[in-house]
Amino acid sequence: MRYAETGYNLEVDLSTGNIERVETDPKLMENHLGGQGVNAKIIWDRVKPDTKPFSEDNLLIFGAGLLHATPVVGCNRTSVNTINPMTGIFGHSCMGGHFGPELKHAGYDRIIIRGRAPKLVYLYIHNERVEIRDASHLAGKGPGETTSIIREELNEPFAQVACIGLAGENKVLTASVEHGYSSASRGPGPIMGDKKLKAIAVRGTKDINIAHPQELFELCLRMKKWINDSDGCGDWMAVDEDDSFHHNNFAWGYSRTRIKNYWSEELQDRWTHWKYDNMDRQAGCYNCPKGCINVISWPGTKRFGYKCYGKDTYHMAAFKELDYTYGMLGQCLDWGVDSYSTPQAISLGIELYDNGILTDQDIPNFPTDPGDRVKFLLEKIVHREGIGDILANGSWWASRMIPGAESFEHNTVKKMEQLPIKLGKLNPAYYLMIATGEKMAITQIEGSFPQDPIRDPVKRKEFVDNWDAAPYQKFKDMFMNWEKRDQISIEDTCALTDWNEAMHYIDDSTGLCGFVSSFRGQFGGQVAYSFNNVPELIHLATGMDIDKEGLWEICRRNRDLVRCINNRLGMRRVDDDPPKDHWAVRDPELEEKLLDAYYSFRGWTKDAIPTKEELHRVGLDYVADELIQLGILDPNEGTPEQEAAKVAEQKLGGC
Amino acid sequence: MGEKVKKIVKTIRVDLDKCNGCRGCEIACSAYHATPKYSAMNPSRSRIRVVMDQFNDEYVPIRATDYAKAGCDGRRVYTIKGKQYSECSFCGTICPTREMFFDPDSGLPLQCDLCGDEKEPLCVQACPQGCLTFEEVEIEEEEKAEVKMDEMELGIKALLDKFGSQKIADTFNRLSQKG
Fold it and tell me: Closest-CA residue in chain A for B99?
């Protein structure tokens, strides 16, 4: 009997219309858990490095987390993986809501989609019944209409629907997959459009077997109350209206302008009214008591939901206030565009126009007001009209397609827009996370170790004493000895980066949400899930014997595998590079040392490829063999540290 | 006239504004009623369902109440604070009009029993948000003498159960006119 997972994948080939229910190898769970972990393994095995993102051979995988459809609270994020057409590497993407758990109840751990339908279709899944259906009547429709039409025509009011809007249909690279008020950005939107797959509707009524159901249920019921009452879980921005942090510290416009004293009490009061006078409710995701999604009915627009920093990006691109974003978000949700990267592609366009790189010929009838300009360009992007057809590829590609624009582009890593953060002094931990991360969003990498030290030694001690989430004493010691943000040893920097990343790898594979787990611990330390309790939950759900070290090993394996997929697609050390102006004061010597040390820590070569020894250690020998065969990995090359030791030994031998 | 008697009535009060759509009530209900207890968690076996349409901001947890062999037309639509609700959104009747409160495997109806001996029904325990609260209300009721049905009444009751009163009345009228 398979526990926690269903043991079946749904394979759909949209080119041929072939649909298969395929039993999976139980070893996949032992090695990679589920979610993104298993998705990565499938992409390594089946998407060859010469596959173009927009091709029938690229896969689009909707993967439920290992703990989806178990009683584990706050476990609902579905991993949607593919080769991201913007970056050309493995696309990390996930969405909250109800999709993954419903998919498990339908009897599948994931849907693997290949091919391209001859015309717009949607996929209907009700347990064993799976159909590819015509979606021509849904063309151009937003998620609200698409969801209700599909539910009605199938007579499935409880079906969970994930779909693309017009932006995805038009293969806008910043398009996202929409599901209720959740969305999966960074890759899958345009791929779904390319595959001519408008939507997936899933309904499941089957049981999931749990190895130790009573213990798990009772534990989770207690945790639900705890999570509900805890300030250490959920999106605090849903309840704390002081958003001075983003507005005073993040850069406005095309990530250029900081307005340090922007926030004021008067402004906060006004914005708070805008929010609560128009708010319907704070909604949550499957089996989570938190209400992170602010649902707003703003006059003149469709009802929308947003969380966290999603309310800031449009007005910060346009130098406007919250009411401007509220006026936009209904339309943005309907079109299905990512609110993180899209405003940056737009504001690059505005900057290029202001600098004469783009002219009235390129953008006829361009308005003068920045707010009108953002709306104008957004519409062009979504429809891929005129200049919008270029900006729809994101700021990196657009700046390479428009003559004279390249030097203006300044805020991408691995070709993808980053949060508009421009700071003073280099922060070693953030340098490593931003440089070496492959998830293209710092919020998917940071999160367990606090961002800043606590200056007051009494408060610091108190924090550490209550820090249940710290997996080892060394992290507590590290924090106790930490005085100044940028003064932290290289060794400690590597260790805390590893912990931060590993927590996200837990979430990506189990389906847990970062707001009760990987992202949230850095703020206050009181988070629901950590290395100290997730092994027990996995054990109760799956029956697998697993401890902290074993779980960490799986995270390491999954991390190495994603890196190898990307190495095979051409990624190297040179790509591990933050935006040049992320910090005003850089320290190239320290940065090189940090990279070398981190690669050594991870068991990677100087060129950022996991060594043969490392891949053997994590049980990925077959990956090493292929990288060696392709001439990507030198089987004799060690980590920078090992190589330095070899050189030192040779020198000694010469004496 | 029957005698007035005091009765304790248990119920679950629902505050729609507090529902965040997590469906923890569905999970807990299905787990509690699984055999063996907690052996399966499956919202489609739950005796409480959240009728939910996020885009309409509609979140209504309803509990399975009585079984009705016949459905109704269910066509009434109510607008509350600008949001449209079908009357079915508030109806706990287990009826053939919709696929709700039937066990997905056996097709048998699933009725809320307020979790028998539990201190509080499980759905309430799984709702720290406070959308669902358990209440015991004392009411005074006239004690009704049990009525014994005769043969014809039993027959008509069975027909009513099966076809619903409207259909029976229509048929009766039609047949009576034919003479």
Answer: A156
Give per-residue pLDDT as tens, A564-617.
Answer: 999 999 999 999 999 999 999 999 999 999 999 999 999 999 999 999 999 999
- Residue B22 to residues A209, A224, A258, A358, A520, Cα–Cα distance (Å): 21, 11, 38, 48, 20
Q: Which whole-number Å values give the CA distances from A287 to A438, A442, B128, in the listed order?
A: 29, 26, 11
List chain B pLDDT tens, one digit each, 179 residues: 567 888 888 999 999 999 999 999 999 999 999 988 998 889 999 999 999 999 999 999 999 999 998 888 878 999 998 899 999 999 999 998 888 999 999 999 999 999 988 999 999 999 999 999 999 888 888 877 777 888 888 888 888 888 888 888 888 888 888 65
Contact criterion met (CB below 8 Å) for A90 and A438: yes
Do A94 and A40 touch, CB atoms closer than 8 A?
A: no
CA dist., res. A599 & res. A593, Å (int): 10
Residues 6+ apart with CB under 8 A from B52: B21, B23, B58, B59, B60
A603 with A537, same domain: the answer is yes
CA trace torsion A357, A363, A364, A367 (10° rounding): -100
Task: Let me know whether A350 and A462 are in one domain.
Answer: no
**Residue A448 pLDDT > 90:** yes
Same domain, A472 and A618: yes
**Strand stretches in B75-171, DSSP E:** 77-80, 83-86, 132-142
CA distance A421 to A248: 11
Q: How far is CA B151 from the centre of its chain?
A: 29
Kind of pairing, strands A8-13 and A18-23? antiparallel
Please report whether residue A500 resides in a domain: yes
In a domain, A181, yes or no: yes
Pair A461, A409 in one domain: no
The structure tokens listed for B146 are: 């049990």
Cβ atoms within 10 A of the Cβ of A240, count?
10
The residue range of the domain holding A157 is: 8-203
Please report, in angstroms and rounded to a whole number, the separation of the first and last CA atoms in chain B: 40
Shortest CA distance to A425 belongs to which of A380, A472, A486? A486
Cβ of A287 and B24 within 8 Å? Answer: yes
- C-alpha span between B64 and B21 (Å, rounded): 18
ipTM of the complex: 0.94
Structural domain total, chain A: 3
Summarised one tens digit per residue, pLDDT across range B7-32 is 888 999 999 999 999 999 999 999 99
Q: For residues B50 and B25, is the Cβ–Cβ distance under 8 A?
A: yes
Cα separation, A331 vs A264, in Å, equals 29
Residue A1 domain-assigned (yes or no): no
Same-domain status, A410 and A472 = no
Angle at A338 between CA A117 and CA A93, to 5 degrees: 70
Residue B10's identity, in one-letter code, is K
Co-location of A268 and A393 in the same domain: yes
CB contact under 8 A, A217 and B38: yes
Last residue of a domain, one of A203, A223, A246: A203
How does DSSP classify residue A358? S
For B54, the closest of A218, A229, A283 (CB atoms) is A283
Residues in chain A closer than 8 A to B121 (CB atoms): none
Nearest CA in chain B to A293: B20
Mark which of A184, A203, A222 sits at the end of a domain. Answer: A203
A77 min Cα distance to partner chain B (Å): 13
In tens, the pLDDT along A70-96 reads 999 999 999 999 999 999 999 999 999
Q: Which chain A residues in 115-144 lie under 8 Å from chain B, judged by CB atoms? A: 143-144
**Under 8 Å between Cβ of A100 and A111:** no
Question: Are both A49 and A17 inside the same structural domain?
Answer: yes
Whether residue A440 is contained in a domain is answered as yes
